[in-house]
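Hey, I'm writing a tutorial for new members on how sequence and structure tokens pair up, and I'd like a real worked example in the thread rather than a made-up one. If someone can provide the structure for the chain below, I'll link this post from the tutorial.
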Amino acid sequence: MSWFDSVVDTTSGAFNWLKKNGEVASAIAGAAGSALNYINQKEDRSWREKMFDKQWAQRNKRTYFASNPQNYRYDSHSANLTGGLLTQGLVANTNGNKRS
């Protein structure tokens, strides 16, 4: 218990000193508040930069594909055009039976 008593005595002595020296206590509280405010603003700025970069990447991706239609490969879909609804589906088969 002597260790705990030593910590309590030291802590209570420090708080008594702060009570007697109000200006110093205000300065310490102001410095602590400023430090916490700085940390909060730094984290907020980092988060905003990440969100901006993410939105910028999405905007660039949309703009790239909209301005460069040659990037779409329509030839990859041409094989599906011959086996579609008109040629082998319900429209081409007028009696309703499915062709194989």
